[in-house]
Write a structure and sequence with these properties.
By secondary structure, the protein is of the alpha/beta class. The chain is built from 16 helices and 24 strands. A six-stranded parallel beta sheet has the order 2-9-1-10-11-12, with helices on both faces. A six-stranded mixed beta sheet has the order 15-13-16-18-24-23. The protein is globular and about 65 Å long.
């Protein structure tokens, strides 16, 4: 069976996902076969495997960093929030229904056999399993029947690295307070602490580090600097939502829907030279961009009504009438049609029918059977502003409950309004270049150079940067000592 090491954090967004990805890359560079694992993930950014299974995006990143194909066994339970009180529950890649938080809390222990089965199957195939926890192990109100933090560590006998985020302040209180709230057997599993996202001179931290060692009774494995990397984020805590857009010749606005999902679809546009991408939540922020993007969402009807109520929908309709390029993906695509029907109340909006934006000639009906598939094909002939994309190769994946009128091309639309069910549509360098050149020609400016690397090659470069920065910051002898049960 594989050796394992677990990354737990003092809070959400402490950096567990990227640190787990870094360890996956480091162990792979050191000649070990390694797989990631997270028993339960809550995120709206998801992915579909080659076998048609849905899993969390963070474990996809970690698998890529490990040099292996994403496998649903790496994330057997995925929770996709539908409301503030409930989520769609996905087990082993397929939805089993919507549950309130209390319903899932009562039921989660029933999933332990499924979690252990897939974990053990991975452990039989790899040298090392890098496990990621969720939230904090010291959430004492949620510790009963835990299956993702110390509960899982106990089930698979995993040593733990405890990570704190210094960038958000109070890191010493975070780390010591977490250790102090653990039960003695749980505390014994913590083999080292780790400080993440540090900016400044590490020498200034040393007095605090020594006190932390004494209070927690374990070594500090390292202080990882704040690194600016372009690696897919897990969820809506993403820093890219709050970052100001860079100044560029092209202005692209993404509607930040309340339940936005798979916003990583737009990462390639962020890298395009001379293009400024920003996220907006109001008509005042929208302005008059060159392109408007409607992203995926877990609650299409509710988010469409949100746009209707806050004035974004009429602002987008006016922009479309002026000739602005409007592009929707997945849920955003569904919004562009004539009607959305939910006869079985599969979404939580409480409506069986809602009027769409009327910009595309189609209707969508939600059905219980969820589409989960990878797609690779050449684009059919395209009319209108994006006619230059006709015939270009396209690869991505589909995740949606709604069925729109058939047959549907991969890219539907004409004039200046388009939509697609395909996540990863802009990952193709020729498609990205075609969109940028079309926008530049329309605006009368020269396009800048487009990233020539494929999205996969670009991500591999970023994983190497991540691994180099983390390796240089950690006591790797200590990390291997923990992995080999010598500490």
């Amino acid at each position: 069976m594989a050796r394992c090491i677990m990354i737990q954090g003092t809070m959400s967004n402490a950096g567990k996902s990227l640190l787990a990805a870094a360890l996956c890359r480091i162990f792979r560079q050191d000649g070990l076969s390694v797989a990631p694992f997270k028993s339960q993930n809550m995120a709206l950014n998801s992915f579909v495997t080659r076998q048609g299974h849905e899993m969390g995006r963070a474990q996809v990143v970690q698998a890529e960093a490990a040099g292996i194909e994403p496998d649903v066994r790496m994330n057997p339970i995925l929770l996709k929030p539908t409301t503030d009180m409930g989520s769609q529950v996905i087990v082993n890649g397929r939805p089993v229904g919507n549950m309130t938080a209390s319903e899932y809390f009562r039921k989660k222990r029933d999933y332990i056999p499924a979690v252990l089965e897939v974990y053990n199957s991975l452990a039989a195939e790899y040298d090392v399993i890098v496990i990621e926890g969720a939230g904090s192990p010291a959430e004492i109100n949620l510790k009963q029947d835990d299956i993702v933090n110390m509960g899982l560590a106990n089930l698979v006998d995993a040593p733990v690295l405890l990570v704190g985020d210094i960038d958000r302040g109070g890191v010493f209180a975070q780390l010591y307070g977490t250790v102090a709230l653990l039960e003695p057997p749980e505390r014994a599993r913590v083999k080292a602490t780790l400080i993440n996202k540090f900016r400044g001179d590490v020498a200034l931290l040393e007095p605090g580090l020594e006190t932390l060692r004494q209070l927690c009774g374990v070594p500090v494995a390292g202080v990882v600097p704040y690194m600016r990397l372009d690696i897919d984020d897990e969820d809506s805590l993403s820093e890219r939502f709050s970052q100001p857009a860079s100044t560029g010749g092209l202005d692209v606005a993404v509607i930040r829907l309340p339940r936005i999902s798979n916003f990583t679809d737009f990462a390639p546009l962020e890298r395009a030279e001379g293009l400024s991408l920003r996220y907006v939540t109001s008509p005042a922020q929208l302005g008059e961009p060159d392109m408007i993007l409607l992203p995926g969402t877990k609650s299409t009807i509710a988010d469409l009504l949100w746009m209707r109520q806050n004035g974004l929908e009429p602002a987008i309709l006016r922009a479309a009438a002026r000739g602005t390029l409007v592009f929707g993906i997945c849920g955003g695509y569904q919004m562009l049609g004539r009607r959305i029907l939910d006869p079985d109340q599969l979404e939580a909006a409480g409506l069986s029918e809602v009027r769409g934006m009327g910009l595309l000639d189609m209707e969508t009906v939600f059905e219980a059977d969820k589409v989960q598939t990878q797609t690779e094909a050449d684009l059919e002939p395209v009319e209108g502003l994006l006619a230059g994309l006709s015939g270009l190769p396209c690869r991505g994946y589909q995740i949606h409950m709604g069925r729109s009128e058939k047959p549907l091309p991969l890219l539907q639309g004409s004039g200046n309004v388009y939509g697609s069910y395909l996540h990863g549509f802009f990952d193709s360098a020729p498609i990205l270049q075609g969109v940028v050149e079309t926008l530049c020609a329309k605006k009368g400016i020269q396009p800048g150079p487009v990233q020539t690397l494929s999205a996969w090659e670009y991500r591999q470069q970023e994983y190497d940067k991540l691994a180099a920065g983390v390796r240089a910051s950690l006591d790797m002898d200590l990390i291997y000592g923990i992995l080999n049960r010598e500490v």
